[in-house]
């Protein structure tokens, strides 16, 4: 079978990209690795709880196995969106660089099919490598997960090993989803190569809402098939609410950030304020990709405010109830920790992509004497206010949403609020640290403006 | 408002150890005989094993425009970057009004470029998220002007360069020629002492390139800035008062790189009529004439 000449160029184009291209590849593969490792871990925990429910060892397993499965499904659903966000960020990474390269190919006559094919190849390959490395990381993480007791005893490595078929499935699904996401992102090139060459931006679509809806349906079917009807109804209601809230946040978030950008633009006095406001207004969706993950995580944190109160309600009379509540608390903290970690990695990746996408502008601005510090100030300004607004706003929204259900309980045990404030502070600090991690990349990008030998 | 961090000319005095190797040589402009505004002496620069500059002397008088011509790899862009303080040469000295530039720290050279130089590149130097007006206002804001003052001045510059009505447009919504005129306005808003232009018309068609050069030369002269234009195009070089040709990192006899010899030579007055209809007067009326 003969291969298209353009597709045959793929490896050469990859190499020709130089150091930036390698950085982009490393970041994308890292993101796919983290996504795969945590997804496998989450699936492993879910399967572990299902296994304990189906093959109970203790009376507690027999009595409460179904309940634990319900909790595991809930945690899985809470983690779906952050996992997809990170995967999406990886697929979108450095897209402007590929945009320019592929737009050039379109301009010299490559067909849309060939351009899409190149993207599929490149992104799928990154996804595959990430999936394989992620499986290794998952193997390492098993050592951590097997230290944490649930239902009175930790899982064994055997309990949490997902099995070869699931691993192979991940190796297939991650590259396919990555390629599809990359192709969707690059549709502008296919439609109008000049549009990309001239750096005009067009609004994109939010595919996340569709995926979340599908995931909710799948979760509903999964729970229903397991026969836990009562739990299924509760879970479905909970998931339905969460899905609606997530969808609403994803739809509203970028718009709110856009409004924030307009207000800040009017009030801008210094170059850093002006640039930060313009960047926010220019592409609120890009900023949402940086702070939105933490917004969703904060929403989850708000949902979990009631957990300590519920735990304290259990008292210490019934050892089973105490264990159950303790497990809920452990699960809640684990879910939160993973969510915050995912949003921090997403934010770091998105910020790094933003540096690479603006490479030429940044270099030339520096040559013209724009101080390096300005770019640091702009980054902090453009991230901090949306970050605070999104995280605190989301936490408040979920707190208000659940107040009718748990209001009295939360007020009776305010440690939940402390958990919320503490986790928000940690989450915000993590995301800020992650965005600051792009500083060396920025410095290196600026330093590379050293002139070519004519 | 004055930014206290902007170096006064006295700040450019080098440390005692940084005495220029050719300090004993008198530095005068070949064109006017007066002390040059910007001068390079014995400039050498290497990238690894490649010698980009092999010993170049160059002067730039007050208000003078100089074209640096040569084929790819001749060292002309490296010369521009050395003169502009973007890179420190491996050897030789660069002086601005007699004060060595290369002894300054990276931070001070950046400050120098921001406050006393202006730049026009081939393309892509406008920040894509800012409007045309904001792009022009930014350098003024960076040197301490308030946003309202900077934007008012930027509006006047855009109008003077024929871009009234385009203030709110983003770089992606401007034609190549419009974007370069915005870049010229941005380079000149701080009334720099020297403007450096690296292939300013390289991405434009001939007619648009002609228009941009006219705007660049006229408005630079109107504010009293000196101008260095790096180009491989003899038509572009012809806009300048004087031209030097380069090959293999050295200045070579006129026309030897292109086979022709347009443009006035050192010691000559400009040999062609300078463009006058864009209005040096118009620009200087707005901005108060030469510095």
UniProtKB/TrEMBL annotation, chain A:
A Pfam family of this chain: FtsX
Keywords of the record: Cell membrane, Membrane, Transmembrane, Transmembrane helix
Major localization listed first in the record, in broad terms: membrane
Membrane spanning stretches: 25-47, 67-91, 128-148, 160-186, 207-225, 231-257, 288-311, 331-356, 383-403, 409-434
Topological category with respect to the lipid bilayer: Multi-pass membrane protein
Domain ABC3 transporter permease C-terminal: 92-188
Subcellular localization(s) per the UniProt record: Cell membrane
Keyword presence, Amino-acid biosynthesis: no
Protein name per its UniProtKB record: ABC3 transporter permease C-terminal domain-containing protein
Automatic annotation (TrEMBL), chain B:
UniProt signal peptide: none
Domain ABC transporter: 38-273
Pfam families: ABC_tran
Annotated spans, Disordered: 1-25, 250-291
Lineage: superkingdom: Bacteria
Keyword annotations from UniProtKB, A to Z: ATP-binding, Nucleotide-binding, Transport
Skewed-composition ranges (Basic and acidic residues): 266-275
Transmembrane residue ranges: none
Keyword ATP-binding recorded: yes
GO MF annotation terms: ATP binding
InterPro entries: AAA+_ATPase, ABC_transporter-like_ATP-bd, ABC_transporter-like_CS, ABC_transpr_LolD-like, MacB-like_ATP-bd, P-loop_NTPase
PANTHER family in the cross-refs: ABC TRANSPORTER RELATED, IMPORT ATP-BINDING PROTEIN
Name this protein carries in UniProt: ABC transport system ATP-binding protein
């Amino acid at each position: 079978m003969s291969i298209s000449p353009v597709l045959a160029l793929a490896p050469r184009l990859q190499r020709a990209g130089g150091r930036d291209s390698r950085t982009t590849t490393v970041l994308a593969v890292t993101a796919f690795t983290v996504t795969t490792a945590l997804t496998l871990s989450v699936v492993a925990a879910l399967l572990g709880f299902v296994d304990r429910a189906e093959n109970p060892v203790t009376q507690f397993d027999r009595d409460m196995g179904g309940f634990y499965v319900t909790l595991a499904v809930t945690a899985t659903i809470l983690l779906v969106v952050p996992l997809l966000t990170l995967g999406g960020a990886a697929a979108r990474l450095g897209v402007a660089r590929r945009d320019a390269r592929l737009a050039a190919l379109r301009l010299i006559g490559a067909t849309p099919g060939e351009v899409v094919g190149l993207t599929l190849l490149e992104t799928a390959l990154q996804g595959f490598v990430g999936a394989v490395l992620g499986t290794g990381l998952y193997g390492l993480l098993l050592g951590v997960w097997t230290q944490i007791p649930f239902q009175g005893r930790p899982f064994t490595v055997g309990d949490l090993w997902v099995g070869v078929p699931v691993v192979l499935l991940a190796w297939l699904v991650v590259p396919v989803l990555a390629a599809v996401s990359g192709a969707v992102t690059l549709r502008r090139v296919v439609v109008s190569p000049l549009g990309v060459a001239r750096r005009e931006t067009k609004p994109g679509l939010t595919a996340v809402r569709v995926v979340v809806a599908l995931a909710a349906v799948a979760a509903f079917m999964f729970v229903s098939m397991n026969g836990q009807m009562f739990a299924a109804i509760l879970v479905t209601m909970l998931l339905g609410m969460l899905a609606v809230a997530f969808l609403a946040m994803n739809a509203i978030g970028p718009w709110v950030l856009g409004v924030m950008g307009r207000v800040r633009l009017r009030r801008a006095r210094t170059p850093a304020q002006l640039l930060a406001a313009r960047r926010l207004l220019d592409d609120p969706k890009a900023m949402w990709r940086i702070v939105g993950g933490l917004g969703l995580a904060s929403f989850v944190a708000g949902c979990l405010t009631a957990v300590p109160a519920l735990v304290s309600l259990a008292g210490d009379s019934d050892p089973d109830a105490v264990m159950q509540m303790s497990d809920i608390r452990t699960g809640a903290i684990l879910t939160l920790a993973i969510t915050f970690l995912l949003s921090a990695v997403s934010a770091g990746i998105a910020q790094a992509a933003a540096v690479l996408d603006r490479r030429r502008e940044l270099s030339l601005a520096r040559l013209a004497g724009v101080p390096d510090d300005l770019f640091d100030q702009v980054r902090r300004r453009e991230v901090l206010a949306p970050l605070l607004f999104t995280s605190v706003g989301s936490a408040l929204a979920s707190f208000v949403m659940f107040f009718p259900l748990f209001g009295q309980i939360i007020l009776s045990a305010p440690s939940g609020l402390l958990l919320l404030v503490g986790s928000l502070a940690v989450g915000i600090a993590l995301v800020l640290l992650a965005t600051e991690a792009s500083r060396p990349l920025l410095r290196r990008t600026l330093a590379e403006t050293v002139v070519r030998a004519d | 408002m004055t930014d206290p961090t902007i170096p006064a000319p006295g700040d450019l005095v080098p440390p005692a150890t940084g005495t220029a190797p050719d300090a004993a040589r008198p530095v005068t402009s070949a064109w006017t005989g007066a002390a040059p505004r910007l001068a390079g002496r014995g400039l050498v620069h290497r990238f690894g094993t490649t010698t980009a500059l092999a010993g170049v002397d160059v002067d730039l008088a007050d208000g003078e425009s100089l074209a640096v011509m040569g084929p790819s790899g001749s060292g002309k862009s490296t010369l521009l970057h050395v003169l502009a303080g973007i890179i420190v040469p491996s050897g030789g000295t660069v002086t601005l009004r007699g004060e060595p530039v290369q002894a300054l720290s990276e931070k001070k050279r950046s400050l120098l470029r921001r406050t006393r130089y202006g730049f026009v590149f081939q393309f892509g130097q406008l920040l894509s998220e800012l409007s045309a007006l904001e792009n022009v206002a930014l350098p003024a804001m960076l040197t301490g002007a308030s946003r309202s003052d900077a934007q008012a001045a930027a509006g006047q510059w855009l109008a003077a360069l024929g871009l009234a009505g385009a203030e709110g447009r983003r770089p992606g919504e401007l034609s190549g020629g419009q974007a370069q005129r915005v870049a010229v306005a941005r380079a000149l808003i701080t009334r720099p002492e020297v403007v450096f232009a690296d292939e300013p018309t390289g991405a434009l068609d001939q007619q648009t390139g002609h228009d941009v050069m006219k705007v660049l030369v006229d408005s630079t002269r109107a504010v009293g800035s000196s101008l260095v234009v790096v180009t491989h195009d003899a038509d572009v070089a012809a806009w300048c008062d004087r031209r030097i040709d380069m090959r293999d990192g050295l200045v070579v006899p006129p026309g030897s790189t292109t086979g022709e010899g347009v443009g006035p030579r050192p010691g000559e007055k400009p040999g062609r009529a300078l463009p006058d209809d864009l209005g040096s007067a118009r620009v200087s009326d707005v901005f108060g004439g030469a510095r």
